[in-house]
Amino acid sequence: MRIRRARKEDLKEISDIFRKETAKRPYCQRWTQKTAFEKIEAFFKKSDIYIVVIDKKIIGFIILRITVGERGRGAYIEELWLKSDFQRKGIGKNLMNFIENKCKRIGVKSIGLISDKRSNAFRFYKKLKYKTHNNLVLMDKKLR
């Protein structure tokens, strides 16, 4: 297993993983090849994307955005996806450790993310000691 920064030529493969994995429960998102590619391409321009490679194949990725605010440097995980066949094998944990170590080296004090409470990812993040905030809540409104 190798983790490296994504290159432009990796974006199609990354967007394919994103499209296929987000279509599953509990997310049930409907991305086309084109819209998934455009989303990943937009992240590529403003964030850091790291991929996991096994046997010369991309099997997952993480998108990290570094922020600078009144409390100093922070980081936000925009997306983290692994192909289903590679989940629950320690790969996601290795990828998170890689990102956490990278963030520590550049002075980041905290990493934020959003996770669906119904997902396996939520339990994964809890095992890695990520905590829910009592003072923050995600809010949305359906527009009609």
Low confidence ranges: none
Structural class: alpha+beta
Count of individual domains: 1
Rounded average pLDDT: 95
**Could you tell me the strand content as a percent range?**
25-35%
* CATH homologous superfamily identity: Gcn5-related N-acetyltransferase (GNAT)
Task: Categorize the overall geometry.
Answer: globular
Number of helices: 4
CATH-scheme architecture: 3-Layer(aba) Sandwich
Largest sheet, strands/sense/barrel:
5 strands, mixed
Summarize the structure.
This protein has four helices and five strands.
Overview of the structural elements:
There is one protein chain. With 144 residues, the protein is of the alpha+beta class. The protein has a single domain (2-127), classed as Aminopeptidase. The protein is 34% helix and 26% strand. The chain is built from 4 helices and 5 strands, in the order βααβββαβα. It has helices spanning 11-22, 33-46, 91-105, 120-127; strands at 2-5, 48-54, 57-69, 72-82, 111-113. It has a 5-stranded mixed beta sheet with strand order 1-2-3-4-5, with helices on both faces. Strand 2 and strand 3 form a beta hairpin. The longest helix has 15 residues, at 91-105. The chain is globular and about 40 Å long. The termini are far apart. The mean pLDDT is 95.
Structural topology:
Elements: E1 2-5, H1 11-22, H2 33-46, E2 48-54, E3 57-69, E4 72-82, H3 91-105, E5 111-113, H4 120-127
Parallel strand pairs: 4-5
Antiparallel strand pairs: 1-2, 2-3, 3-4
